[in-house]
Design brief:
12 helices, 2 domains, Endonuclease, Chain A, about 290 residues, six-stranded mixed β-sheet
Amino acid sequence: MKQPGSPTVRRRRLASDLRRMREKAELTMEQVAERLGWSITKVSRIETSKVGVTVKDVGLLLDLYELTPSRRAEVLTLARDAQKKGWWEGYGDLPTEYATYIGLEAATTSIRSFAPEIVPGLLQTEDYARAVIRAALITSPPGEIERRVEVRMARQARLSQQDPLRLWSVLDEATLRRLVGGPDVMRAQLRHLADLAETPNITLQVLPFAVGAHAATSGAFSIFEFPEQVDADVVFLENLTGSLYVEKETDVYRYTLAFDHLRAKARDPDESRRCITEMIGLTAES
């Protein structure tokens, strides 16, 4: 069985498999906890991928669920793969939510995103990223800011590798007009966007102010699509104090429809590139 390239996705798939196997065995979480001498909280956190799970514990669960030998071997292989480390773990103690995001991003085949305020991280120049991160981490030491910048730049390798990530991003006009890092930094960022817009795997569209109210006035979001059909699309939402992953099929569908409405109202890719180029001139005059 082909495995996705990120241990984060493997952990999520393992958690989902374990939940489905428990339900097929017609056992409640309470019954599993009682039979294994665990807390209900432990079972719940394993099934929701809130914690990692050892191969030994997976084996105990599989004994309880009475799997066939072939299926048991398959799940244990997935459990071992889920314990492997991703490249981002070499950067030290990144916040769990951020590490989860990078892990999902590392396994996607395509991302569709709406950016209402700030250029998405995968499209940022180093100086623009530094200005954004410094503004968000106002109490962090310089070393932490530089580490985050380095991680963000490393993430961008997905866009230029042999089998590159496909990225379709709708940028609100505000992202082009918001002066981040000063005129020089912003001009360089806009030039970078104009160059990226010519890359085959990247599609950029600008949503003009004239559109008015639209389907995503609630804020930014990203839709992750994975190579394996068993790994359903996931929507990522972020706010000041945390993040949320939307996985319910009907909710993901609503975000997909919202994105379709956004790209229908936005300028087409060629027009959008001309708009970005025009903004470079306006920034030079500021």
